[in-house]
Design a protein that fits this description.
This protein is an alpha+beta fold and 548 residues long. It contains 16 helices and 18 strands. The strands form 4 sheets. Strands 3, 4, 5, 6, 7 and 13 form a 6-stranded mixed sheet that branches. The chain has a 5-stranded antiparallel sheet with strand order 9-8-12-11-10.
Length: 548
């Protein structure tokens, strides 16, 4: 097995020493004291190396050691017909190239340390050779000026002129991984001499210092965010406390937390009202961060930053950062920071990533708790609707009680029932707690387009303010503060004979089982209505028979 970095070894050690059910992203993150973004990156690296594999358990990936797969034997082609002299020349050239390549591979293996950057530069600071670790952090970099400041380059150039073979100078420098994001390294410089006289290049070996740069204050800040995640009474309270703590890590002018639900990105919390219209201008930027599951930066001259500065009218901002909020192996949101700093340390980015992990964990538990509560409510609603339908046969009374019972047990503030009339058109029959404006719109048939979605799907429609469909709702729905809508088809066999509609000013989270349970309420109501109508029909026919 090839040599692994410290973080890779730490992850491997965790997976070896824990049972399979503990080898999911969240538990590996906690067990290794790294951020989700860091752990996820190295899990994918180990997977790409063929060391780890995974299988899905629900929506989560379960990671485990992968058995080595023997390589397929090479297929050797038949030699081409050439004259003897040409063949000899080709054999000689191939032999020399083989020897050089073998030597190159041998040398690459020698410098391929996972814990150190090893690279060489010529007197013009062009990067000539590098190991895999360097290429991982600084891909496609061609010159030392691309990754360190001009002042530090000048210092190295001045040192180069006076270096001798015996010299080995050690420095601490900041190396830019991305625009505005630097990582501290201790580097040693060793000259490459031609004929032991002229310096033609430098061997540079860099040791990362970021893991040793976390201060006591930063640790205390991270601890305070973790404590807030465990004690916050609401999502807003946690976000407020988290953003205050993040300011101690990276001093910012503005901070906004975005969340993504059902493919729709929304502003969940902002530290300043002046950022309220920011989303359209930064959406592409934060989507890049969320799609790649890594922090993104935009510095001076970047399109996104310049656009934001012009929109906000604050030209003092020098750097924009997006740190993804990760759940499992996908992003559910982003923390956007606008700061006057021109650069920040990768240690600070990692600290904010850990704060994002605490937010993610809280949001996940909040959603699971909400889904659990709503699941219990659906069971209660199913039981109560059965009681209502079995206790009355009068259609109008049945509809009144069905609406009242269902919205009460599910925690909705309002509801109504539409049934097909003689012309097979949906007509409002009963309503409960509808605001006057919505009631008038219902009676006027203003929601036919919305109802058509249910008729097309032949299934319930579930829309929250976090859904993409929410934006297409009638303005009156949003104006009344409705954040969750449920439209349940009332069915008789395979035919939809009506709709039970409900609205809530709270966001309600339902899992697939809960939604299936809710669908059964419409089926029960449809069956009860058909029984009631059949009983009336039989009674009428019976009365006709007696009359005759």
């Amino acid at each position: 097995m090839e040599e692994l970095s410290n973080t890779e070894r730490l992850i491997m050690s965790y997976i070896r020493s824990h049972p399979p059910e503990d080898c999911m992203l969240d538990k590996i993150t906690r067990g290794t004291s790294r951020s989700r973004a860091t752990v996820l990156k190295y899990l994918e690296i180990l997977h790409a190396k063929g060391i780890l594999d995974f299988k899905f358990v629900g929506r989560s990936k379960l990671w485990f050691l992968k058995q080595a797969i023997p390589e397929k034997p090479e297929i050797i082609s038949e030699p081409v017909d050439l004259d003897i002299q040409k063949i000899n020349e080709l054999v000689s050239a191939a032999s020399r190239l083989h020897a050089l390549r073998s030597k190159e591979m041998e040398l690459k293996m020698l410098i391929d340390s996972p814990d150190a950057l090893i690279f060489t530069v010529n007197i013009h600071m062009d990067i000539i050779t590098f190991n895999n670790t360097f290429n991982t952090f600084f891909p496609a970099k061609k010159n030392l000026r691309d990754i360190i400041s001009s002042e530090q380059v000048n210092m190295i150039e001045n040192l180069t002129r006076s270096l001798s073979l015996k010299d080995n100078i050690t420095l601490e420098i900041d190396m830019m991984e991305k625009s505005g994001i630097y990582r501290p390294y201790k580097i040693s410089l060793q000259p490459i001499l031609e004929d032991n006289e002229t310096v033609i290049g430098i061997v540079i070996i860099g040791e990362e210092l970021s893991q040793s740069r976390r201060t006591k204050r930063e640790l205390e800040t991270l601890l305070s965010i973790a404590q807030a995640a465990g004690s916050a009474s609401s999502e807003e309270q946690l976000m407020e406390e988290a953003t205050v703590s993040i300011k101690d890590i990276i001093p910012y002018e503005y901070c906004t937390i975005f969340l993504k639900d059902n493919g729709n990105i929304r502003t969940a919390y902002e530290t300043s009202e002046s950022t309220g219209e920011l989303l359209p201008h930064v959406k592409g930027f934060i989507e890049k961060s969320m799609n790649t599951l890594e922090a993104k930066s935009a510095g001076k001259g970047d399109f996104y930053l310049e656009n934001v500065k012009s929109v906000m009218g604050d030209m003092s901002i020098s750097l924009m950062l997006s740190i993804p909020i990760i759940d499992e192996d996908s992003a559910i949101g982003s923390i956007l920071l606008l700061t006057t700093l021109t650069s920040v340390s990768s240690v600070s980015i990692e600290n904010v990533e850990m704060a994002a992990d605490e937010l993610s964990g809280y949001l996940k538990m909040q959603r699971l708790t909400s889904e659990k509560e709503e699941f219990a409510n659906t069971l209660l609603a199913m039981n109560q609707i059965s009681t209502v339908l079995n206790s009355t046969s009068n259609e109008d009374e049945m509809l009144e009680k069905a609406v009242k019972s269902t919205i009460s047990s599910l925690g909705f503030e309002m509801g109504c029932i539409y049934l097909n009339d003689d012309k097979e058109e949906l007509t409002l029959r009963v309503h409960k707690n509808l605001p006057e404006g919505l009631k008038n719109m219902c009676m006027a048939g203003m929601f036919k387009d919305l109802f058509s979605k249910t008729l097309e799907k032949q299934n319930l429609v579930y829309i929250t303010s976090e859904s993409e469909e929410y934006e297409s709702l009638e303005p009156a729905v949003k104006a009344n503060g409705i954040r969750t809508m449920l439209i349940l088809p009332i069915k008789s066999g395979d035919n939809i004979i009506g709709l039970l509609n409900m609205g809530s000013r709270q966001i309600k989270h339902y899992n697939d089982i809960s939604l299936e349970n809710l669908s059964s309420i419409g089926l029960q109501l449809g069956l009860a209505l058909e029984k009631s109508r059949l009983a009336i029909k039989l009674k009428v026919e019976s009365n006709r028979g007696i009359h005759i």
